[in-house]
Amino acid sequence: MENPTTTGQVPSLNMPYRTFWEKTRRFQVALLFLLPSLILFSVFVFYPLFRTIYLSFFLTNQKGLPTVFVGFDNFIQLFQSADFLQSVKATFLFILYTVPASVVISLFLALLANEKLKGIHFFRTIFASSLGVSVAAASVTWLFIFNPTMGVLNRIISLFGIQEINWLADPHWALLAVSMTTIWLNLGFSFLIIFGGLQNIDQSLYESSSIDGAGYFYQLRRITIPMLSPTLFFIMTVSLINAFQTFGQIDLLTGGGPGQTTNLMVYAIYKDAFVNFNFGKASAEVVILFLLILIVTLLQFKFVEKKVHYQ
């Protein structure tokens, strides 16, 4: 390439400005393409988030409009409230019941469905069927299953000489009953994701280990689980966040009872905001819930992700 100084050509002084304006135009075009998404996120995500944080520092009227600035009083009252602390406890118990069970059962079903057996396609469809069932339909179905007099579940346990249980009205069993419904609802999605992860594992790894004499459980521990760990980590993270946000089955099955034992945080927020019209308190609960989800998710990424084996 010829040097402009040797050929007598003088470099254009407008070149840096031209490059700057070209980059500016490209940025404007990119921003134009992003504008619809930015508008949607601003209206449905960012504005509600900042509005909720704002309302958490106020007392409000029945229309949700702020009236008196109270600072952190809403938060202080919540942590002094036995009902709120009970809802936090119930939420974490619910997570403990549902998330590990959903992941383990889905993994077990996916391992079964991954086997090359006759008619396995039918069972794959059955295992994933709950994905197409709405929360309302599933809750109504389980409402009949848990019926203390005509329910299928009580008839099954009576065959083993166990006394019939009032699943949804007994404080000792209500949260477990709702957890069973939630586990069934989550199985379809978790099964499909884990099954897809199993299908993507290189089969040559199993063939090589089989030649070396490795058995099924050794392959499961040394090949399947490590190669599936990104998928399992994703499922655990999504299931944990969904468990924090559970509402529909609580509303339809127990209404937060009996004795606040199934009054999870989201349902408590719903009652405070749209039943008691205490929007300031409800907004403070939303902020606490958001912080809890954020902290738990960050802890997952800090400690659990270290054990994830990325290919």
Automatic annotation (TrEMBL):
Transmembrane segments: 29-50, 92-113, 125-145, 173-198, 225-244, 286-304
Membrane found in the keyword field: yes
Keyword Cell membrane carried by entry: yes
Domain annotation ABC transmembrane type-1: ranges: 88-300
Organism domain of life: Bacteria
Native organism: Terrilactibacillus laevilacticus
Pfam families per the UniProt record, alphabetical: BPD_transp_1
Keywords, ordered alphabetically: Cell membrane, Membrane, Transmembrane, Transmembrane helix, Transport
Family, similarity comment: Belongs to the binding-protein-dependent transport system permease family.
Compartment(s) of residence: Cell membrane
InterPro entries found in the cross-reference section: ABC_transporter_permease (IPR051393), MetI-like (IPR000515), MetI-like_sf (IPR035906)
Topology versus the membrane: Multi-pass membrane protein
Chief location of this protein within or outside the cell: membrane
Name of this protein: Carbohydrate ABC transporter permease
